Fold this sequence. Notes:
Distance between the termini of chain B: 36 Å
Structural class of chain A: mainly alpha
Helix content of chain A: 40-55%
Structural class of chain B: alpha+beta
Largest sheet of chain A: 3 strands, antiparallel
Order of helices and strands of chain A: HEEHEHHHHHHH
Low-confidence stretches of chain B: none
Oligomer: heterodimer
Radius of gyration of chain B: 21 Å
Amino acid sequence: MGTKLREIVFDIGGGILEGRKFKAVQTGGPSGGCIPEQFLDMSMDYESLAKVGSIMGSGGLIVMDETSCMVDVAKFFIEFCMSESCGKCVPCRVGTVQIYNVLKRITEGKGKPTDIGLLEELCDLVKNTSLCGLGQTAPNPVLSTLNYFMDEYRAHIDDKVCPAGTCHFNHTEESQ
Amino acid sequence: MRYPSFLQRIADRADVQPVRVLTFSINGVTVSAREDETILTVARQNGISIPTLCHLDGLSERGACRLCIVEIKGSPKLSPACVTLPRQDMEIITHSDRVIDYRRKILELLFTERNHVCSVCVSNGHCDLQALTVELGMTHVHYEYLHPQQMVDASHERFSVDHNRCVLCQRCVRVCDEIEGAHTWDVMGRGHLARVITDLNEPWGESTTCTGCGKCVQVCPTGALSEKGKSVAEMTKKRLFLPYLKLMRGEEEK
């Protein structure tokens, strides 16, 4: 508590493997947000994390380097929340599925320019109208990556390119 | 021994239950209500209509459909009116642009979830979901339809369940448990894979607990539960038994 994120990642954790570049750190488990490099000198506490759109949560950290695609990461976490949703309230039960489908479409190179707005709208809906904490925090990884890594979303949708090289688009199908 | 105070003596008496009356405002109009009445009840008493789906008079509350969300001044969160109790001097707004927008979007999500096709539905024209689209002015669904593969169980001799039209409001589950006392219905699975089941996911016709009373069919908001032999738009639901049963059982307990 109160330790700088940079200290945890680079000193205690030993830094990034094979000299690759740091990209983001995801805090608080699947419903936390992804924090980019510019906030690394922030201290690890409840208030600071909330300020940049993340949570303390379980206290776990997932550090990602330049080989991680942030759209794919957001898709991975929302998939977890989608399968963990109990199904009682409508926004969480259906909203998470809708968010997942849009992200899946983007990572497959089939994203549309309107998808960014659609994601923001769905995230806002699920966050504000869900019954319990799972639905209320499930959109966090999507919202924070939209906030800090918009260029990666844009690259997927407009240029059909994955900057990290993890998403594989089927270009032959695209041209048909 | 210290003699208990007057208030303590009142509180200890089982036959006297003092009910506090609260004063608060809904949409700027000052209203008063008993402290054990929900915002939804008070709003309806005062002629304010809040859209609901999982709520049904006579059954326990679920707070699950999120259509009855209202804004409470000073709270960043939206509260479901059906399960929120008012407090003194609370300022409630039931129809702000924000909640109207959210309600419509939630309804759109419901339409994308299963396969709701009014034109071929037994409940066309008598459907709570359909009535909500009119009430909320929902004309389009701008999310992608999920088109799931869902089953139809017509094994019961008089009724059938079409999961394509189910909205998972769990009215059937509650009426079967709370009113009929059979608890034939329940929910299996979670998230978007959740669905209502009879007994331990056995065909309805083979259920050993089902009494065949048909209460579930009558409370179902959509055409998911229907009587056999009804064609398109012919399934009207008779729900008057519910307030009647509640009233008569209440009299019996007195």
